[in-house]
Amino acid sequence: MSTAHRSLREAMLDAAADLLVQRGYRGVRMQDVADAAKVSRQTVYNEFGDKWGLAQAVVVRHNEAYLDGIDQVLCEHDDLYSAVTAAVRFTLETSADDPLTKVVLTGADGDDMLPLLTTRAEPVLFAASARIAEHALAQWPELDREALTEVTDAAVRMTMSHMVLPSGPIEQVAGFIARMVTRYLGVPAVPRDRADA
């Protein structure tokens, strides 16, 4: 993808994200996005196919920015339990305050974007699970790749479930998911050096 094409795509995604937050999915037309991005409507269709493809691209890009934050959070912790707890907490706190996530989670009409985080969430789930697992393996290379991949997918799905339907205090949910991950991997919840202190 050329720099000019990437810049044009980003402009369309910026416009679409702003409009989705302001108007919701049903209130946005491809022509509105084209006008805001100063391109033709056909250019938007050529790039994204249809409105659903555009909405999906907005959410996937938004997810990439969120994963940058997760990378930072994971780097701030030496032990897996603390890292997972902090990552889940970051996810739930960020999603609660994020305007685009609120639009996805609270769409009131039948054409809302909730499936992008539920029944049609594979692009987001796959990207999140794969990137988090790779980061964890780089930071903790002694972990079993297959087991980590499995439990990361489960942890991401569980965290997304709590985004959609919160079931308790964030700290409690984060601790539960961290215990699930560390127990599955056979890693102590409290690092040995802390346990011996």
TrEMBL record:
<dbReference type="InterPro" id="IPR009057">
    <property type="entry name" value="Homeodomain-like_sf"/>
</dbReference>
<keyword id="KW-0804">Transcription</keyword>
<dbReference type="Pfam" id="PF00440">
    <property type="entry name" value="TetR_N"/>
</dbReference>
<dbReference type="InterPro" id="IPR001647">
    <property type="entry name" value="HTH_TetR"/>
</dbReference>
<dbReference type="Pfam" id="PF18556">
    <property type="entry name" value="TetR_C_35"/>
</dbReference>
<feature type="DNA-binding region" description="H-T-H motif">
    <location>
        <begin position="29"/>
        <end position="48"/>
    </location>
</feature>
<keyword id="KW-0238">DNA-binding</keyword>
<protein>
    <submittedName>
        <fullName>TetR family transcriptional regulator</fullName>
    </submittedName>
</protein>
<dbReference type="InterPro" id="IPR050109">
    <property type="entry name" value="HTH-type_TetR-like_transc_reg"/>
</dbReference>
<keyword id="KW-0805">Transcription regulation</keyword>
<feature type="domain" description="HTH tetR-type">
    <location>
        <begin position="6"/>
        <end position="66"/>
    </location>
</feature>
<dbReference type="InterPro" id="IPR040611">
    <property type="entry name" value="AlkX_C"/>
</dbReference>
